[in-house]
Every structure is written in structure tokens, then in C-alpha cells.
Amino acid sequence: MMADPAFGAPRLDAPQPLAEPQLVAKAEAKSEPLIKAGSSHVADEVFRYAMLACGLCVLALVGIIIYELAKGSRLSWHAFGLSFFFRSEWDPVNEQFGALPFVYGTVVSSLLALLLAVPLALGVAIFITEMCPRRVKTVLAFSTELLAAIPSVIYGLWAIFVLVPLLRRFVQPWLARYLGWTGLFEGPPYGIGMLAAGVILAIMIVPIISSITREVMTAVPQQQREAVLALGATRWEMIRTGVLRNARAGILGGVILGLGRALGETMAVTMVIGNRPEIARSLFAPGYTMASVIANEFSEATTDTYLSALVEVGLALFLVTIIVNILAQVLVWSVTRGMPARSNA
Amino acid sequence: MPEDTAASGTFTTAPVSLYRRTVNLLMTSAAALAVVLVLLPLGAIFAYLVYKGIGALNWDFLTQTPKPVGEIGGGMANAIAGTGLILLIASSMGVPIGIGAGIYLAEYGRNRLGDLVRFTADVLNGVPSIVVGIVAYAIVVLTQGHFSALAGGVALAIMMIPTITRATEEMLLLVPNAVREAAYGLGVSRWRTTLSITLRTATSGVITGVMLAFARVAGETAPLLFTAFGNQYWNWKVNQPTAALSLQVFTYAISPFDEWHRHAWAGALILIILIVIAVSAVRIAASRGMLKGAS
Questions:
Q1: Which among B14, B31, B121 is the nearest to A58, CB-wise?
Q2: Contact between B138 and A71 using a beta-carbon 8 Å cutoff
Q3: E-strand stretches of B108-195
Q4: Is the ipTM here above 0.85?
């Protein structure tokens, strides 16, 4: 950025007689002559501080979020301490609160979503960046972006009326018959439950993971690809050794970013997970997540402790997603900003 | 392979083994299959929205308020208006602050404070929307003593700010320094340069950022659950509970009534039309404007 004094100072200083001590003193404060010459200095300063205030607003918002969550959850923290996250009781009537079922539901549904979404997202990213013709590329990229623009509540609506019946009628009986021995697919196939939540989450996070993956794959220099191809590699070998290996930190970042999104996702999950605070081994069983318990019970929480317990769940969710997101950012930056050429590492 | 070429002395193309060709083919088809599997739900969602939504969509839906359970008909006019009201409140707070913070980052933010703000904006971007709802509840609803459109607007504004900030910064940084220097050289003051030269040059990019943020919050439901709360009747007052399209879709979708399910689909269709218009506007702006250089 250029400071205006750099232009103005010499010209304004030059004609002034240096002999007079007063003026020498003035000349030492280099920008001062221009301050007086430029009538807009005050306006400049006002503008600068106004913009600074906007910037500080962002800072303040995060401060307020942390403060309000901490303040709101104090009551519950005093009542249950750290054991809040290891108790599985959730009994608003007797004011006994433990968040374990929600933590479990959030973790399991998110991991299930990652399991389904990561291979798909990688495939889409690979296809778009390395395989498909240019014209198709823009269409596909636009379509996946569109998938990211659909609101969560519409995913939920679709899941309730289309996905859940599909799961109930076709997928779950099949899974129960062939994979029932694992214990993961037992019990009555309601359709609604952990599996449905995982599937809808997967559909929702595919666009995020694939767009980040595309970004980091594009950041890999073209020479890498050409070099590997010149050694006689097939296209897949080129993608694997030349592109994926160089972009792996960034891809991991994209995956973690998707995880962050899945952890905090509320509406679609709330609509299909079944909302029962229980820990069950079977993925067919209904569950509950941290975000959905807040969504369902916050406006109905009658006692202070109840409300406070919900805020504490929110605080935990906030902290976890923040950590996950920061980790992801660092990983993505390491590829898109720095040199991706540490292929021998 | 090196032995082959060394032995023959000349460079020949060795035939690619069947195994490698098979793997190549398998992986290529797997990637193509992934694309199909991802586009399938996209197609299904849009097809269902149109198929189910069109059927329930009529003039009444757009002009009337909801009818009680059991009665046929009624609409979501108040929810459409409510969404408009909440988005208006959110934009009037979020857009100026977001653009201002973006200007700060691009023009004055090359220092540690700037880095901190940039980092915080990214953090804010990752905050789950339901958590933003809790915070808006704590700072607006608790202070006012009741649910209100204002609280919903504040929640959505908080969600808009980081997106707009980062987009504005990115777009302003794309403006060549020579443009700024030219303005300074003509004696234009700094604030004037920033507003009428730099920001003006980056307008289309900044608008893209704003529209993306808008599209992102337009369908948000979670932060409105206990801020705007919903309302069965018309409301134009900023400090009263307000219906919103997304909230109404949610309430109707989880209800046990068929008539309400039909309305949920129609509401979702309206919502997605609004968002697709916003996103396509962004696309058109992006293909013509200076976003080209960015991505």
C-alpha cells in the first residue's frame, strides 16, 4: 500500500527554509505537512477506523459466541462437570442430563457419512479434473455446486418421503439378510434411524469434499502429470502417483472440512434420525445428535438447568467443529499455498 | 522396464500389461460411476420437488395464510413474506459489515490484526448454524423477552458476514495496484479511491459474494427455530414472531397430515426456485465479471 506522504513530502518540504528550527522540527514529523495540505486526511482516518470497526465486528462476533455459550452453560457445568459428556441419562423431568447419546449419534452419523461420501467425492473430483472433456466439466462442476446450494430442510423433506421408504423397503432388508451377522444391521427396518441420517449426510457433504479435492488437484502442477505420463504410466497410475499423492494433504483437509459440516448439520438429520436418546449398536435403530437435540428441545426447555444443558451441548459442538475446521484449513493451505512438490516425503 | 530398454539399446514402447490396463479401466469406470451416483440424488431431489411441488402450487398458495389442520387449501403467503422480511433485516446488517470488514482486510489488513480477523472470519464460517441460533436467542430474544423477526435476522446476518468478508477481500485484492496508484497520482484521497475506484472495479465480484451468502442463508432453518419461531398469521413487525418458508416446510414435513405434506413440497419448490435464481445470477455475473481471474 502506498502512503500518500511518499509522494507529497519532498515537494512540500523542499521550498521551506531549513534554517528555522521550528520548521526543522516539523519536517521531522514526516507526514505532517501533507496532513495539512490534504484536506481529506480526516475523512481518510474516519474511513479507516470505520472499516477497522467492521473488521473488529467479526472478531467481536466470535467473542460474543464464546461468551454467550460459556455463560449459558455455566449452570449445567456446575451441576454435572465433565461427567456431562459421559452420562447417558437424558431425563428433563428429573433434571438429570448426560450428553453421551448425542455425542455418540453425532460421531457415528458423521463417520458413516464420511465412509459413504469420501470415495464418491474423490471419484467425482478425479473424473471432473482428469478425465472428462471441457464442456462436460463445467456442467458437472455446476451440478455439484447446485447440490451444495440446496437447503438442509429440503434434503430432509426429500429424505423423509423418498429416501426413508427406499431404505425401508429395499436396502435395509437386503442389508439385514446379508450383513445382519455383523450386528450393525439388526432390528426392525423402520427406515428412519442412524443409517438414513448417515446416507443423507453423505449426499450433503459430497459437494464440499469434491470441490476442495478438485481445487487441490488443480493446484498440482501440470508438469507432474506430464512427467509421470512420459515414464509410461497409464492414466490411473498418473492420477495416483502424480496427482493424488501430491494433493493428499489437501484432500485430507477437504475430507475433514466435510466432517466439520456433517458434525454441525442439523435439519436434515433431525428429520430422519428418529430423535431418541439411546445408544444402539444397530444402524437401523433411531438415534439423536447434538445438533438435533438443540433444534428439537431448545424452545421447549422449561427449566434453567435443562436450557443450560442444551447450551452446553451447543458449546461442545462449537468447540469440536472449530477445531475440526481449523485443522482442515491448515491442511488445505499446505497444498494450495505452498509447494506441492514434496512427493518423496 | 529399465532392463528392457537397456538391453535393446533403443527406445521402444513396451506393451502395457493386461493388469495395468484393467486397473486403469476399472478406476476410470469407478470415477464415472461415482459421478452418476452423485448426480442421481440431485436429479431425484429436483424431479420430486417439481413433481410434488407443482401439484400443490396454485394461486391460493401464494396469496393465503395457512389453514388449520383438516381444512383443505390455504397457503404460505405469510411465510414467503416472512422470509423476505428476515432476509431484508439480515442483509441490511450483514452486507455493510461484511463488505466493510472485507475492505479492511484487503486495504489495511496486511498486519497481525488483519491476520487475526481473517482467521476469525474463517472460524465464524465453520460455526454450525444451530449454534448461531443459540447465540441470537441469547442476545436478542432474551433481551426482548420474546421471539422476533429481528432475532432471526441477526442470526442470519452473523452467518452472512464471514462469507461476504472473505469474498470482498479476495475480489479487492484482484484489483491491480496500478489502479490504486493511478488514483492516488491524481490526488484522489484514499477513502475515495477505495470506494469509487477499487470497490467499483470489483463490484461484480463483490456482488457474487453477497449473493452466495444470501443463497446460503435463504434456506437456513436451524437458526430460525428459536429466533423467528414461526407464525400462522401475517406479520410485518420487526419485533414479532415471524413465519419463514424454511420453518414452515420443516413443520409441515414432520407433521402427520397429507395436506400439509403437499404444502411442504410446494414451499420447498418456491424456496429452491428463489435460491436457484440467486445462484444462477451469480453464475452469470461470474462468467461476465472479473471473477474469472479468481477461480
A1: B121
A2: yes
A3: none
A4: yes
Does residue B75 sit within a domain?
no
Q: Is residue A13 situated within a structural domain?
A: no
Report the residue of B5, B13, B45 to disrupt the A interface, i.e. the one with the largest count of A CBs within 10 Å.
Answer: B45
Query: Looking at chain B, which residue has its C-alpha nearest residue A320?
Result: B127
For chain A, what is the radius of gyration of the CA atoms? 28
Confirm whether B267 is domain-assigned: yes
Residues with Cβ < 8 Å from A7, sequence gap 6 or more? B184, B185
The full DSSP string for A61-103 is HHHHHHHHHHHHTHHHHHHHGGGGGT---EETTTTEE--HHHH
**Residue B217 counted as domain residue:** yes
The residues near A217 (Cβ < 8 Å, ≥ 6 apart) are: A125, A126, A129, A130, A243, A244, A247, A251
Lookup: cell for B44: 431425484
Q: Give me the domain span that covers residue A126.
A: 102-336
Q: Do B221 and A50 touch (CB under 8 A)?
A: no
How many angstroms separate the CA atoms of B254 and A292, rounded?
14
Is B175 domain-assigned? yes
Q: Measured over all CA atoms, what is the biggest interatomic distance in chain A, rounded to whole angstroms?
A: 100
Please name the amino acid found at residue B48: Y
| Nearest residue of B to residue A39, measured between CA atoms | B189
Question: Which of A124, A157, A272 to mutate to test binding with chain B, by most B CBs within 10 Å of its CB?
Answer: A157
Amino acid at residue number A166: L
Total domains in chain A come to 1
User: Which residues of chain A are within 8 Å of residue B107 when distances are taken between CB atoms?
Assistant: 1, 51
Contact A123 B31 (CB under 8 A): yes
The beta strand positions in chain A, using DSSP E, are 90-91, 96-97
Per-residue pLDDT of chain A (345 residues; tens, 9 = 90+): 444 444 434 444 444 444 444 444 444 444 444 444 456 788 889 999 999 999 999 999 999 999 999 999 999 999 998 999 999 889 888 888 999 999 999 999 999 999 999 999 999 999 999 888 888 888 888 888 788 888 999 999 999 999 999 999 999 999 988 888 888 888 888 889 999 999 999 999 999 999 999 988 988 889 989 999 999 889 999 999 989 998 888 899 999 999 999 999 999 999 999 999 989 888 999 999 999 999 999 988 889 999 999 999 999 999 999 999 899 888 888 877 654 443 333
CATH code, B160: 1.10.3720.10
| Nearest-Cα residue of chain B relative to residue A267 | B222
Number of domains in chain B: 1
Q: How far apart are CA B276 and CA B271, in angstroms?
A: 9
> Is B38:B25 a contact under the CB 8 Å cutoff?
no
Domain that holds residue B203: 84-293
The three three-digit cell numbers of residue B215, written as one number: 443463497
Query: At A113, which CATH number?
Result: 1.10.3720.10
This prediction has a pTM of 0.86
Report which of B180, B151, B128 is spatially closest to residue B244, judged by C-alpha positions.
B151
Assigned domain for A302 exists: yes
